[in-house]
Amino acid sequence: MNTPDATIDEVTASVYTFPTDHPEADGTLSWSETTMIIVEVSGGGQVGLGYTYAAAACQPLIDDMLADAVRGRPVLDVTGAWEAMVRTTRNLGRPGLVSCAISAVDTALWDLKGKLLQTPVCRLLGVVHDAVPVYGSGGFTTYDDATARAQLLQWVQDWELPRVKIKIGESWGRNVTRDLARIAFARKVIGPDVELFVDANGGYTRKQAIRVAHAMVEHDVTWFEEPVSSDDLVGLREVRDQVRPDVTAGEYGFDLVYFARMIAAQAVDCLQVDVTRCGGITEWVRAAALAAAAGLRVSGHCAPNLHAHVAAAVPNLAHLEYFHDHVRIEDKILDGALDPTGGSLRPDLSRPGLGLDLKRSDAEPYRVQ
Ligand SMILES: [Mg+2]
Predict the structure, then answer these.
(1) CB within 8 A of 137, min separation 6: which ones?
(2) How is 54-108 classified by DSSP, letter by letter?
(3) From ligand 1's centre to the CA of 115, what distance in Å?
(4) 103 within 8 A of 52, measured Cβ to Cβ
(5) In this structure, is the dihedral angle defined by the CA atoms of residues 175, 180, 181 and 183, taken in order, positive or negative?
(6) Residue 1 pLDDT > 70, yes or no?
(7) What does the pLDDT average to over 285-310?
(8) Domains detected in the chain
(9) What is the distance between the alpha carbons of residues 201 and 249, in angstroms, rounded to a whole number?
(10) What angle, rounded to 10 degrees, do the helices at 78-88 and 97-116 form?
(11) Mean pLDDT of all residues in the chain?
(12) From the CB of residue 195, how many other CB atoms can be counted at a distance below 10 Å?
């Protein structure tokens, strides 16, 4: 079969669970493991790889409903397959697990298209940036000083990252004293020249967030993520109007309408978009276009190796979140995981698709279904 006529054959999902290296928590959640759903899509003699970080419940949805929706469709027409997945899941509700499952299949389809055409995904989309800036992300509220220091030094000294982010808002905003002490500690460890970001994961109330922002002014924090719940668009706007750092949110955006509402509410200075949740690469570029029309930049949320190609193809890119948990996993099981040294990821233009291959023997011990 000629390349343009190749059709999608099989779609299979597998589930892996990886324990964290330390107990982890942010302002509003704690966890000890991360679940990854890996999708493989075959067609035209190639296999595409995609994934999402979600829950094992994505697997039957992908293996049954989404596979039925895309099987037999042309490999090159990813948008058509994406639309078929969205339509077939209408009655299930798009936000949440359904969108995570669609995202995993969509990213695998882009990878498959790239492999079929022997072209990197960033070039299918059109490269704008040769290098994609990243920021170090972790800094969990559960870390003691020694653990926090070691992580910060790995980012700024070993990897030369020029920007880092820690979690604050501990215990739903009930330990502001420790939040501020940890911000001061992080600034002391990284020195004056590295950008310092904080993420409260929606742990504060509106006025509390404004007071925290004023109290951290001396530490030159330039990014205040989810100071209040990202569902509180009026609250985000209120905080944004009264604090110096950029106010950011968007990681729970599961469809384009979510981002449109957030932008219309003037709730953020930078829109965060997660390719493993929003509907994959197909929807990520649309969200970035919405942001561009409003004069905003976008930042990729987590899963850095899955974001690298689409981020490289978006003019209004700010950076990607080089998230500790996902970096550990992706470095361990994906051949082709990118090196952040110097503060950016450079998609490997010599590798087709997303440039990632599953190291099966390394992944197998973590497979749960
Ligand atoms: Mg966040």
Answers:
(1) 164, 165, 197, 199, 302, 321, 322, 323, 324
(2) S-TTHHHIIIIIIHHHHTTSBTT-HHHHHHHHHHHTGGG-STTHHHHHHHHHHHH
(3) 32
(4) yes
(5) positive
(6) no
(7) 98
(8) 3-119+360-366 (3.30.390.10), 123-353 (3.20.20.120)
(9) 9
(10) 160
(11) 98
(12) 16
pLDDT in tens, 187-203: 999 999 999 999 999 99
- For 48-86, the pLDDT digits (tens) are 999 999 999 999 999 999 999 999 999 999 999 999 999
Q: Which residues surround ligand 1, an ion (CB under 5 A)?
A: 199
In single-letter form, the type of residue at position 93 comes to G
Give 262's contacts (C-beta < 8 A, 6+ positions apart): 230, 233, 236, 249, 250, 253, 268, 271
Distance 170 CA to ligand 1 centre (A): 13
Cα(205) to ligand 1 centroid in Å equals 16
Structure tokens, 335: 């051949």
Between the CA of 157 and the centroid of ligand 1 the distance, in Å, is 23
